[in-house]
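Risk register update: the risk of archive-format incompatibility is retired. Evidence:
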Amino acid sequence: MLATIAFPSWLKPEVIPGLPFRWYGLTYAGAIAITWFLFVRESRRRKAPWTDDEAAGLFVWAILGLLIGARLLGTLGYAWETFIKAPWSIIWPFDQDGAFIGLRGMSYHGGFLGAGLASLAYSRRRGLSWLAWADVMALCAPLGYTLGRLGNFLNGELWGKVSDRPWAMVFPGATPFSAREPWVQEFANKVGISVSSMNDMVNLPRHPTQLYEALLEGLVLWAVLWLFVRRRPSFPGFALACYTLGYGLARFGLEYLRGSEAYVLRLGPVQAQPDFFAGLGYLSTGQVLSLAMVLGAGAFLFFASRSSRRSTAL
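Archived output:
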């Protein structure tokens, strides 16, 4: 009896088979719609100093910056060797056979930076307070992010490391392992996967990290910000810093369970089979970027809070 969960066989990336509409794109559209709805609601509650047209302009610039930044870092930062050989594929959504595959490879950290820079440029051009806008956006974005990670799950991508947990899932697109490896046979037997031949390539169950991220970096973070941070009197940039700090911490921890990624820093011995949790002795690219978010947000909170207290005392 299989001790893990099989990815639903009826679930395909395409909304309608044969047409270039994917669940991932649909969830992205839903994420933008939810974020915009919450943004308008919170802006009105705060009586924010921008018009509806200015808010829409900020939103559009932020989305464009997000898409450009996410794509650039997702391709050149994580798979630069592939895209240096074929740079047009950065913006070309078709494979070599002409099939529509969309733009695979989007980095959250690149999108975060791109959205920030683009919205900052628009704010300065219009004479708006960027921190005030970013505070409202930070309160709203995590709920939209939840849908984005659900889109990754529906696409059957961004699976995590091999696991024997009862909720681990066999993703059809995950990299299989050769049954010639003794550890593969041992693990397959442990979770109830049949291996009939030494020539078999075995697809082992993995952590559904898309769902972990949707819950922790999305829904839980949004609830904390919306219920506790939103109504707390604070200085400009407080909500943005709380969001950045919360996301960075959550992503740093979950990165240990995400799928295989090259170690960029080793802090000690790393001993594990391929795609297994290798302990705490390494940092991935995503962890280094998340750590930078945490340190930046922490420094901002420290100095901004001190400055705010001094202003109040005066």
